[in-house]
Amino acid sequence: MRQQNQLLTSRTQVKHRYALIPSEGVPYSRLPEWPDALVQVLAGPALGAEFVEYHIELEAGGEGLHPADGEIEHFVFVLDGSAEFTLLPGGAAGSGGSGEAATAGEAADAATTAFGPGSYALVPPSVGYQLKASTTTRLLLLRKRYEPAPGVAEFAPLIGCELDVPGEMYMDDPGAALQTLIPEDFAYDMAMNIFTFQVGHSLPVTETHIMEHGLYVLDGKGVYYLDDSWMEVEKTDFIWMGPYCPQSYYATGLSPTRYIYYKNLNRDIAL
Length: 271
Ligand code: UGY
Ligand code: MN
Prior knowledge:
The chain is built from no helices and 23 strands. It has an 8-stranded antiparallel beta sheet with strand order 1-2-21-18-23-17-16-15, with no helix packed on it. An 8-stranded antiparallel beta sheet has the order 3-4-5-13-7-11-14-9, with no helix packed on it. It has a 4-stranded antiparallel beta sheet with strand order 6-12-8-10, with no helix packed on it. By secondary structure, the protein is an all-beta fold. Helices cover about 0% and strands about 50% of the residues. The chain folds into 2 domains: about 140 residues, Sandwich (Jelly Rolls), CATH 2.60.120.10; about 100 residues, Sandwich (Jelly Rolls), CATH 2.60.120. The structure holds (2S)-amino(carbamoylamino)ethanoic acid (UGY) and manganese (II) ion. The site of (2S)-amino(carbamoylamino)ethanoic acid has 7 residues, from strand 23.
């Protein structure tokens, strides 16, 4: 927050194909599902996104509960703090999990799991969940309408920790590593990845693709190319990239950049 004697400049950009949203400018909201939490809505349909992403702050004892609704899948990622995470199977509609696709994380059952920094869960529409903070905790929560595909069973709940997911060298650059938190499997209609760029390293191409991104900068700083402009970004910034937004990244500063991003994939394109 700026002092009264400082200028009110901002890096915020909200355009047709993208948005850069520094967290300082996003007011808090409350949600019935997270009654004790301070919630920042980072992305939603009003922005142009086909998903919802929240930044959620909980004090110790604060909790959230999402019963299964048969339509929406949820991805929860712990930024910092600690929490107890419990699956609530057998909610509303849905086929239930196949149990076969959960290989990178752990195929989860109804037990409570202790979550710490980097813990994550992908919960299918047919399963509910509850999260209770043990200490002050910050989370990202992404909600997306699950897209069933013919002959593909709904996935089983997936629980893991990014600390257990090795980074793979990205496109022959030893200074760029990609952690794939959700297995590459047709059961899943989304990816959630963490990119680490050493200072001076970049995405090797300017990408242009139909998939959307919801991106949260975990560490470091750099310059992001969005549509037709380079702009500075840093830790705690959120970026929405809509379909066909030209995009690239160059890490600057004194320490590596890490960012976590969502991507929709693995499904035919509706006509
Ligand atoms: O997977 C991706 O599309 C990723 N390389 N994009 C990005 O980091 N902006
Ligand atoms: Mn991309």
